[in-house]
Specification:
By secondary structure, the chain is of the alpha+beta class. It has five helices and 20 strands. The protein has a four-stranded antiparallel beta sheet, with no helix packed on it. The chain has a four-stranded antiparallel beta sheet with strand order 5-6-7-8, with no helix packed on it. The longest helix is centred in the first third of the chain and has 45 residues. It starts with a helix and ends in a 15-residue tail after the last strand.
Length: about 350
């Protein structure tokens, strides 16, 4: 009830700003067509030169990537179609075709690999709870941010600690490796390897060969929850308790976009593998999908009944998963713009999730 009253106050205040007669609306009278048209009018804010340049960079990166992905998907579809034709012809001849469907074989191989998973080592990550874990693009290192404010870097083989990233004043809430840096410990001191965020409202960029951060990005007015790199490695997105997500230019070390749209805190955030779309979700239970090339909110997906905490895109470019406080994992299809599968497997909230990219 308290939240509804607050939303009603905000709505009435906005109606007064827009010139709508609140007393007339409260008495249940219909608004005139002119006033309805004024309420439905869409406003656009002129972008800065930095944002326009960023959108052009993203478009130039994403279009060739999308072309390659779609070509590969068409090639696999044709291979399956040819296999089905050969099977049909074999049945007509009375033969048995032993050739296996490559998709079925890939799923079987993955299932076989998962069945053999076991714990190879164990290590205490920190004196305070860990807030996440992230593997480097090369798979040789991992980062573990924690509530102590530290982010530790480990060698995956043997879980040997390599270094500590220590500059946040509050708990470190997330750490993400730059996707374009495949040799984090071999590059110079000016190359960004890891981005971290914290409850101190900042994002920090780190090189593995330097104890101090390369840059500190400020702008959020509340704690920063999650980070997501653009696949180009040029931009990083951040979600925050201030009900916004922001896009940062790593080379220029500055904010290029402040995106509002959520009514409450934003948690989950993720970039599509092509780099053209970004999905965000949060405490308002909705998942919004944004076109980074135009800035438009192209979809509002609703299905979770509680706050959404986790989000990640699949390699095919049109599926992504979300998980949240309702203990559900949902699979979304952007072609149909709806949830196509729900996994009710967990008994508690889902704070993180990842899609296999192979």
């Amino acid at each position: 009830p308290g939240e509804r009253r607050e939303r009603l106050r905000e709505m009435l205040a906005q109606m007064e700003v827009d010139g709508v007669d609140v007393s007339e609306h409260a008495q249940g009278k219909e608004l005139s067509p002119e006033k309805e048209e004024k309420q439905a009018e869409t406003f656009y804010t002129e972008s800065t030169q930095a944002l326009a340049a960023a959108r052009q960079i993203i478009a130039r990166y994403s279009l060739p990537q999308a072309k390659l992905r779609i070509a590969a998907q068409k090639r696999r579809r044709e291979e399956r179609r040819e296999l089905q034709d050969r099977r049909r012809q074999a049945v007509e001849r009375g033969d048995v075709l032993e050739e296996e469907d490559p998709v079925v074989r890939a799923h079987a191989d993955r299932h076989h690999q998962l069945a053999k998973f076991s714990s190879c080592s164990s290590e205490i990550g920190d004196s305070r709870p860990l807030s996440g874990i992230s593997f480097s693009p090369c798979g040789s290192f991992l980062a573990t941010p924690s509530w102590s404010g530290l982010c530790k870097i480990w060698k995956a083989e043997g879980c040997a600690e390599q270094t500590q990233l220590n500059d946040h004043a509050e708990r470190c809430t997330d750490a993400r490796w730059c996707p374009s840096n495949l040799s984090p410990f071999e590059d110079g001191k000016s190359t960004v390897s890891v981005a971290t965020c914290s409850a101190d409202q900042t994002i920090k960029l780190w090189a593995m060969n330097d104890e101090a951060p390369l840059a500190t990005l400020t702008g959020h007015t509340d704690r920063v929850n999650r980070l997501a790199w653009h696949p180009s490695g040029r931009f990083v997105a951040s979600s925050s308790f201030d009900a916004s997500w922001r896009l940062w230019d790593v080379e220029a070390r500055k904010e290029v976009l402040l995106q509002e749209g959520h009514t409450k805190a934003v948690y989950g955030i993720g970039c599509q593998p092509d780099g053209s779309l970004l999905a965000s979700a949060g405490a308002d239970c909705g998942v919004r999908v944004w076109d980074l090339r135009s800035g438009k909110n192209i979809a509002l997906l609703q299905g979770h009944v509680k706050q959404v905490l986790a989000l990640d895109w699949a390699a095919d470019g049109f599926h992504f998963v979300s998980g949240g406080d309702d203990n559900m994992v949902k699979l979304w299809d952007m072609r149909r713009r709806e949830c196509v599968y729900t996994i009710p497997a967990h008994s508690h909230l889902i704070s993180s999730g990842r899609c296999c990219r192979t």
